[in-house]
Amino acid sequence: MDIVEVGPRDGLQNEKRVLPTGTKVEYVRRAIAAGLTRLEVVAFARPDRVPQMADAEDVLRDLPRADGIRYIALVLNGRGLDRILALGEHDRPHEINYVVVATDEFSRRNQGMTTMASLDAFRTVARRAREAGLAVTLTVAASFGCPFTGEVKPDRVREIVANAGELDELCIADTIGVGVPVQVTELAAAVREVTAAPLRAHFHNTRNTGYANAITAAGLGFTALDASLGGIGGCPFAPAATGNIATEDLAYLLNRSGLATGVAIGPAAATGAWIGAELGLATVPAQLGRAGDFPGDLSE
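Request: output the structure for the sequence above.
Response:
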């Protein structure tokens, strides 16, 4: 089971402290050392709105490059892709993740346009990205609920996906952490009617349902799940958004469920604690840093 480490992007973008480039690169290095091979490392967003991501180009230039390691950059529009393509080929990410928000109100607040206008822009960006050799993921944000307009129906998400065009991967995101397992099942069935693309999911644990949603998605054949080391982060444009599900906790759940992730629990938990300290957090949401792996060293 593939865990996509989103801490360097979705984790850091919602934290008050802006970390230096070198610390961000070290965060990625430690994540790779813990066994993570697919990492969402930057966002190409407006620096005045998301100052935590202002050094996206510098981060990408300084990241270690190795076979089997894939970097993802989040983009919200064509300007974000322009910034990626201005980089040398060696410094570019391997993939882009483009976000379309499921409701018009949230989309206007997040991207300054309606959902369908954002989807129009996605099709153009996706074509240009593929021409440049980049894989493309479409994330439908707020698929489970909107902080401004309430419930989001599976039909709405299906409509968006049906009009998205070619997809390398589809991610359905519970941006504000309101989803429950039955919704995961309903959304998976809805999007499967209109796409055969591999499915990825992005869950937040705002209402303590993120891990239940994740194991449900795994059982439904999703091939990738997002998580952040330490469980840090959240959406800066969603009221009361709290952290992602924690990489170390998710890896423990999946590994012991027979779904090998390749993530080493000890180093992952240590990295979660380390990044929390770098951010000035008294503690991080992840549990494994406190509870430890099992069985672990039973002589202690």
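Residues 115-131 form the longest helix (17 residues).
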